[in-house]
Each structure stands twice: as structure tokens, then as C-alpha cells.
Automatic annotation (TrEMBL):
It comes from the Bacteria. The lineage of its organism: Bacteria, Bacillati, Actinomycetota, Actinomycetes, Kitasatosporales. This is TetR family transcriptional regulator. It comes from Streptomyces endophytica.
Length: 115
């Protein structure tokens, strides 16, 4: 998946699922989001290599959500194709992914069960 419209739609769906409480990000999801978000904070354009670097961190007890992994790999591939990434649809797709990452990076850890 690296068609900008697919990336935008998938990012929007994950944002909605997160906002509606249908998807509760785990610690691994948040760690990946924070790692990519740190690259965004530099003010420099995000690159595919930065996303792949964030995904390559050692796994925790919980795996990163497969939908998030697929979305981020697709976004990395999109960013590798500069003309497509710089087009309006590409920028919109990356903006949606960044909104998702922002929401995940700022989300609170889930309550431990039994409390």
C-alpha cells in the first residue's frame, strides 16, 4: 500500500477507531508513534528511512498493531517517491498519518485489567 488515497483512508480510519475507543493503542504502538513524532519535531521533512528506523526498534512484550505497521510501511514507501509524496494527495496522506501519530504519542496507557 503506497497509493496516497489508501494511506489517507487507512490513517483516517485508525484515527476514528482510536477516537471512538474501538482501538486501544498498546505501549509498542505509542513507542513507535513517539519515535516517528520525534523526527517530526525537528521541523525537517519526514523520510521513509526515519519511519523504517522507528519500526526497527526492539519489540516489547506487546507487538505493534499490524494495521499501524502496514500504514507506516506504506507511508515510508510513499515518502521514498518524492514526486508522489510532494503532490497534494501525497501531502494530505502524510498529514493524516502525522495526525494519527500525534494522537498516539499523546495517548495515555491503557488501564491494567482488574482495576
Amino acid at each position: 500500500m503506497h497509493v496516497p488515497e489508501e494511506i489517507r483512508a487507512d490513517a483516517a480510519a485508525l484515527i476514528d477507531h482510536h477516537a471512538l475507543g474501538r482501538w486501544k493503542p498498546n505501549d509498542a504502538d505509542r513507542r513507535v508513534a513517539v519515535a516517528v513524532f520525534r523526527f517530526l519535531e525537528t521541523g525537517l521533512p519526514l523520510t521513509g528511512e526515519q519511519i523504517r528506523s522507528a519500526l526497527a526498534h526492539p519489540a516489547s512484550a506487546d507487538p505493534v498493531d499490524e494495521r499501524l505497521v502496514r500504514l507506516l510501511h506504506g507511508t515510508a514507501t510513499l515518502l521514498d517517491d518524492t514526486p508522489v509524496a510532494d503532490a497534494p494527495a501525497g501531502r494530505d496522506a502524510v498529514d493524516h498519518v502525522c495526525l494519527l501519530l500525534d494522537a498516539l504519542a499523546l495517548s495515555r496507557p491503557a488501564e491494567p485489567s482488574g482495576q
